[in-house]
Amino acid sequence: MSTPPIPTRTELLETALAAAHRAADIIVAARRDRAFTVSAKNSADNLVTTTDIAAEQAICATIRARFPHHRFLAEESAPTVTPADLHEPLWIVDPIDGTTNFIYGQTHVAVSIACALAGEVQVGVVHAPFLSDTYAAVRGGGATRNGHPIHAAATTALDHSLIATGFPYGTGGRAPLVRRLGAVLERCRDVRRFGAAAIDVCMVAAGTLDGYYEDVHPWDIAAGGLIAREAGAVTGHIHPRPERAPLPSDLDGTNFIVAAPGIFNDLRGLLAGAF
Ligand code: LIP
User: Fold this and answer.
1) In terms of Cα–Cα distance, which of 196, 208, 200 is closest to 164?
2) Which ligand 1 atom is at minimum distance from the Cα of 169?
């Protein structure tokens, strides 16, 4: 059987945008009609709704209709990836980033969709329907917010930097993170905690945040990470990645950090020393 052609980045971006908007229609309608139920995943605080499931199904169906042989790393239906998956076009999907915010009726809620080839993200879309924001990027093609070019902040001093972060579900294991948070509060302008990693990362891309760090999943940062890099921000990890890390860097949310180039190294040093 012949190998299907590799789609162009434009074709991948068009598909990601169509899938994101289809999911957003489901999310907005569910919020409007209060038509969803909530359940807990592996802990009482790690919530998922019927809308997460429906949105992810719509996203994957939209992509499969155009690219039936592509693979998925999706928060609700395909949360693990094999080495074989990384050799095929791989879609990294978070149907609702900010699920807790969605349940509480808050606005920081986003659909995050990325596509990677050989483990390198080629296109990324983060669509926040309640904020009327769509962030997008194509590898090598720059980053946009609602179609307008965006650029990371020019800040070069931590004490003039606004930093976002987040915390894992449940209270266990938060003590070291409190130490990190304390170090940031002692050294930086201030901290924000919006509750949706994908949007946090895109705000660094747009220069409305100077930096963000958190230990998250691939689907939280795959799309936003490309958008941030294409906007001139620097992405990386607080600690050196192991040589045989299970995931490629673009998909690795472990101790993830993104920041304006002028403060990236200082912020990473501050966080690494505070743990
Ligand atoms: C959320 C992240 C957020 C983090 C939350 C949660 P979800 O993702 O976007 O940054 O602090 O604990 O992981 O679960 O809402 O898709």
Assistant:
1) 200
2) 12
